[in-house]
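Recall that a protein's primary structure is simply its ordered list of amino acids. Everything else, from secondary elements to tertiary packing, is in principle encoded there. The following example makes that idea concrete.
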Amino acid sequence: MSASAAPASADFAPGRPIPIGSILGALRRGSGDPTWHQSPGAIWRAAHTPDGPVTLHLHREAAAGGDRVVARAFGPGASWSLDRLPQLLGANDDPSGFAPREEVLRRAAHAHRHWRAGRTGLVLDALLPAIIEQRVTGKQAFGGYRRLVRRFGAPAPGPADAVGATRLMVPPTAEQWRRIPSWEWLRAGVDAQRSDTIQRALQVAPRLEECGDLPREKAWQRLRSVPGVGVWTAAETMQRACGDADAVSFGDYHVAKDVGHALTGSSVDDEGLARLLQPYVGHRYRVQFLVTAARLGPARRGARLAIPTHLPG
C-alpha cells in the first residue's frame, strides 16, 4: 500500500480505561517479534485475516469516563479487523462473576481491574506460534518464530514511513507455511516433531479457523483432535484467539509454581494447580494472568537454564 493511501478507521470507547498493552501483550512473541511494534500508548500489529493481510495501528487517548482507542487499519483485512475491534479489546469478556478469595489475589484484581481477555478470532495466528513454543525455552521459541516470519512472511501493508521503518512483517499464509522445507524448520530450531504437528494442523486449517466461532467445548475438542496439540497448546490458542478466560496453561514450567506460590506460599504441580483453581472455574486463566501481571510468583534466582517452558503438547 502506498504511503498516501488513506487507512480505514474505527474507535472503541467502553466508558472505562483500556490498558491496551496488557490486553494485547500476549499476542507479542518476544521482544523481537516482527509482527509487533509498540510505543507509549500505541501498538502496531500485522496479521493475516480471512480477507487478507492487515496492519492494525491502535492508539489510546483519554475520553469521558475512561479511554478511547482509535484504530487505523491498512490492507485487504482492514474492514474485517475493525469490525472486531471491541472483541479484540475484551468487550466479550465478563469478569463480573470473578470473586477472589485470597487477599493477594484481591489486590491484584483491583490493580488490574480494567484488564479483559481479548479475542483476535484468528486461530492459526495463535496456534502455530504456540506449537513452535512447545518444549523449548521462550528465547529459543521466539527466535525460531522470528526467523521463519522474516524468511517466509511479507512486508506488512501500510505507510512506508511507519511500517517500513519498523520492518513490520505479516506472517506466512497457511499455504506459505505448508511450503517451508524441512531444513528451514531445523535451521530455525524447530524439530521434526513440532514441524510435523504444524503440518497436520495446516491440513485442516479451515476447520481450525472455525474454532473462533464455535462454542467453547467444541473449539477445545477440535483443537485437541490434531495429534501433537495438547492441553497447553490448546489453552494458549484459546486464550488469544477466543478470549477464553478459563483456559489455563496446564503443563507450563512456571504457571503451577507461580500460582501455588501466590495463593499458598508454596509451589504446586499441575494437580495442585487444578485444585487451587477449582473455585475459579470460568475465570481460571484470569487468575493465571493476575498472578503473572502482579509478579506474585517466586523470585527468579540463579543462572537462566535451558529448560522447557512446558511439557509436550
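The beta strands are 8-12, 36-39, 42-49, 52-63, 66-74, 154-155, 169-170. The two ends are 39 Å apart (CA to CA).
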